[in-house]
Structures are given as C-alpha cells and as structure tokens.
C-alpha cells in the first residue's frame, strides 16, 4: 500500500481538496502500479516550514510503498507529484522535497 504524507506551509483554505487528492491518488497508482484503492494520501497545510531560510511556499513529502519502487519510478514520482503541487498549491517544483521509501528493499526474499 503506497502512502504519501505531505506537509506544506501553504494554507489549504479554498483549495479544491477533492481534486488534489484525486490527482495524487491516480498518479501514484499509475506510477507505482498499485490499485487506487490501496493508495493513502495525507496532506497537512499551514505547517511551520522554512526552506532555504525563508517561508515562501514549500513542501516536504514522504512516500512509502511495499514494492514497486525503482530508480525510474522514484524520478517519475518526484516530477509528477511536484507538478501536481505546483499546479494545485502554487508550490514551485524547486521548493518541494520528496523522500521515497520501498519497505521491501534490502529484504532477503528467501526469508519471506
């Protein structure tokens, strides 16, 4: 189950949250290859967050998935989620950081 957690200093008041969640869910499902009903999204707005020493719009995200992550998927997630946040919340892609984790990486498959 992929889980995306985003914190941003941007207020979510007046944001079309349904559209934001829908776009993020569809993108993650498509990129990682998991069904949409397995994707979880959490977005926290108006958090105290600085980036580069200032409080201009910025976001920090973390996505965790059980499988489906490789170098190409990671790049596509960063680019696509960054574009969605830029379009929906006016956060420049250069002010968005995404940490990507695959919980199955490093496991010895013979022990599963």
UniProtKB/TrEMBL annotation:
Highest rank taxon of the organism: Eukaryota
UniProt keyword list: Isomerase
E.C. numbers: 5.3.2.1
Keyword Isomerase belongs to the record: yes
A Pfam family it matches: MIF
MF terms in GO: phenylpyruvate tautomerase activity
Gene Ontology CC terms, in alphabetical order: extracellular space
Homology family: Belongs to the MIF family.
Protein name: Macrophage migration inhibitory factor
Organism of origin: Handroanthus impetiginosus
């Amino acid at each position: 189950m992929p889980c995306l957690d985003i914190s941003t200093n941007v207020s979510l008041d007046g944001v079309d949250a349904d559209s934001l969640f829908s776009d993020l869910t569809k993108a993650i499902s498509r990129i990682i290859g998991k069904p949409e009903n397995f994707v979880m999204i959490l977005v926290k707005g108006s958090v105290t967050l600085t980036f580069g020493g200032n409080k201009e719009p910025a976001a920090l995200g973390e996505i965790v998935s059980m499988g489906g992550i490789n170098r190409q998927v990671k790049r596509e997630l960063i680019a696509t989620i960054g574009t969605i946040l830029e379009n929906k919340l006016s956060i420049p892609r250069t002010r968005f950081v995404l940490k990507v984790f695959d919980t199955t990486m490093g496991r010895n498959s013979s022990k599963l």
